[in-house]
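Input record, target 12 of the design panel.
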């Protein structure tokens, strides 16, 4: 039976506020292989772990991340579990040697500083760099071949259709280590195209399903190689189910 990569999507998106230290701890404790997180830069150029362009959804405040200094942001807590918005450096140091990281690039101005940071704290071989800009990931892979890269194809500039057409001929501009696709778009052709080009296919976005476990099982049966879990509690359930299939 092939291996599955268990990824905590923003740590977890249920029961904790996403992209916070407790959310990452929850995913780690139930056996995630990787915690996925998003990185943006504040007005004063601090790398923080945050998904949205604005703080409106996650906090009871409003404003754009690039319009707020980190000093101002430190005074703001998340909406439901009252947590701080963490610096990337804090998260990496907190979980170093405990779990691997998938770092999603949010914004064009974060790539070099992220690579400098993971190199400085000796995590370059424990991090996957993820993003929606195909050429950016190609450039990272060319310059840092030891870094695994994941192309988030769902809204990427190199479209799913582009990929499927060029993958058939083995004529891709470059082969990322992984490609992540929104779960409802995953078909056998996508998985086959990835597999034939030595790319690991991943699926994300299960939060709106009435029964996400059934969708996850369906995709695993189809051959998906990694799941970004929105609910950390589903990780041990799927592990137990997988064990029962052997």
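The sequence produced for target 12 reads:
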């Amino acid at each position: 039976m092939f291996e599955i990569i268990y990824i905590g999507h923003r740590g977890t998106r249920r029961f904790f506020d996403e992209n916070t230290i407790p959310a990452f701890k929850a995913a780690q404790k139930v056996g995630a292989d990787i915690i996925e997180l998003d990185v943006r830069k504040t007005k004063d150029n601090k790398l923080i772990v945050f998904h949205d362009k604005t703080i409106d959804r996650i906090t009871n405040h409003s404003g754009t991340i690039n319009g707020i200094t980190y000093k101002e942001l430190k005074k703001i807590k998340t909406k439901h579990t009252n947590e701080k918005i963490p610096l990337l450096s804090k998260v990496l140091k907190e979980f170093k040697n405990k779990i691997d990281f998938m770092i999603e690039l949010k914004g064009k101005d974060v790539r070099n500083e992220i690579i400098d940071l993971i190199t400085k704290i000796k995590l370059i071989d424990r991090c996957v760099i993820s993003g929606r800009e195909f050429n950016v990931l190609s450039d990272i892979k060319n310059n840092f071949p030891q870094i695994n890269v994941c192309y988030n194809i769902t809204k990427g500039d190199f479209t799913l259709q582009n990929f499927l057409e060029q993958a058939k001929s083995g004529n891709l501009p470059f082969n990322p280590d992984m490609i992540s696709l929104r779960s409802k778009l995953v078909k056998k052709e996508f998985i086959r195209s990835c597999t034939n080009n030595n790319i690991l296919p991943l699926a994300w976005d299960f939060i709106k399903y009435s029964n996400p476990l059934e969708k996850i099982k369906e995709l695993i049966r189809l051959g998906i190689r990694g799941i970004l879990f929105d609910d950390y509690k589903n990780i041990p359930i799927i592990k137990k189910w997988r064990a029962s299939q052997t």
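The two ends are 7 Å apart (CA to CA).
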